[in-house]
What we know:
mainly alpha, elongated, 79 residues
Amino acid sequence: MSQKLTxxxxxxxxxFLLHHQNYGFxxxxxxxxxxxxxxxxxxxxxxxxxxxxxxxxxxxxxAELQELTETxxxxxxxx
Length: 79
């Protein structure tokens, strides 16, 4: 479903959008959609990296979790 949206942007941003064909886009909407998809992907990647870092910090501080992980790895290798 397509919807319309009114944006208030600076003149420089508008000029950039108006030159969309120079960047391979058929129109301004396609350029904006591409930019939003790229931003969404980058933010999701950042969230994953932060989550991985948090799990790493938790793992490094929890000896019991490290032992449990090592035991599971040994059991897995023996199977």
